[in-house]
Amino acid sequence: xxxxxxxxxxxxxxxxxxxxxxxxxxxxxxxxxxxxxxxxxxxxxxxxxxxxxxxxxxxxxxxxxxxxxxxxxxxxxxxxxxxxxxxxxxxxxxxxxxxxxxxxxxxxxxxxxxxxxxxxxxxxxxxxxxxxxxxxxxxxxxxxxxxxxxxxxxxxxxxxxxxxxxxxxxxxxxxxxxxxxxxxxxxxxxxxxxxxxxxxxxxxxxxxxxxxxxxxxxxxxxxxxxxxxxxxxxxxxxxxxxxxxxxxxxxxxxxxxxxxxxxxxxxxxxxxxxxxxxxxxxxxxxxxxxxxxxxxxxxxxxxxxxxxxxxxxxxxxxxxxxxxxxxxxxxxxxxxxxxxxxxxxxxxxxxxxxxxxxxxxxxxxxxxxxxxxxxxxxxxxxxxxxxxxxxxxxxxxxxxxx
Length: 402
What we know:
The chain has two domains: 12-262, Type I PLP-dependent aspartate aminotransferase-like (Major domain) (Aspartate Aminotransferase, domain 2); 265-401, Alpha-Beta Complex (Aspartate Aminotransferase, domain 1). 40% of the residues lie in helices and 14% in strands. It contains 15 helices and twelve strands. It has helices at residues 13-19, 45-53, 67-80, 91-100, 117-129, 142-148, 171-180, 193-196, 231-245, 251-262, 264-283, 302-308, 323-332, 363-369, 385-401; strands spanning 84-88, 108-112, 133-137, 155-159, 184-188, 206-210, 224-228, 288-292, 315-320, 338-339, 349-351, 375-379. The strands form two sheets. Strands 1-7-6-5-4-2-3 form a seven-stranded mixed sheet, sandwiched between helices. A five-stranded mixed sheet has the order 8-9-12-11-10. α8 (193-196) links the parallel β5 and β6 (206-210). α3 (67-80) runs parallel beside α10 (251-262) and α11 runs parallel beside α15 (385-401). The mean pLDDT is 95.
């Protein structure tokens, strides 16, 4: 038994997060069903033939589609405000497919320099191997974008806020420039989440997520997603790439992500509130040289962040005095906050980007990104912010005293 879902487009966001894409089986279960199956059977050989010809629309193989994945993809698309969504095995699978699937040798990509380490590798090292030209710009410098996009391009790629320095890029302005140059805009929206930013509404063509982060939010599963409104782009380029290269999201992980979406709004908004408290606290500590948080007025792109995001986000970056040694003393003194390169978790997590997520980029390029040896990236969780601040105060004391 299934209910008419025709009204889902009129639901408000909180309702979509809980009920979007729900399609009950004949057993009328309350929770979304988990279909742990790789394949599907046909009643006749003729039915199988017609299915592979495309005359019959149905599930064929879970590398292509699966009922649990459909529920997740439908729900996330409703929340994002997108017509189409495809799940992937990880966030990096989503980034790679969104970039490479529409491109060919001789094409040109312009990217913001401030990227996650693996994203930077794809643009700087991997795409050129396929004959694709790449160029980096300072994502916050509109003049550099104008210069780079004064000649034809095929794709623009950026993160906003960026990982790990929380640079905020003007999505509407960059999208206008990119489209004039003939380029599609691909936005990694992981730090903002669909709760705090909707790039498609600001001119982007493709949005990618590591659903491993906030969407799962509890450190349980890998996953990714690609969202767009352009049917031809999705069905003729992105989906065939995913179907034939195989970065499929597992049904079990998709089911976990469905459950994660139910509380995404509650978690992200609470984590953002905690992050603001933590950022304010760190700003007053004498062991800290600099605090970066888009929700604070002293952030370099604070006004832009306010226009694009109804909140400062869940991430805080800060420089500890004493460079590498000081930052390591700081992390090692933490009792509550865990050292981990993951983010978006219900538990607060901290990492040293120069020796973890961005280590392979090299010191020179890290310096150009603003990633110094004292920089720490803090993913703020759901703990009581007073406890987090007390933990950070003890860590600061350790960093200061040596």
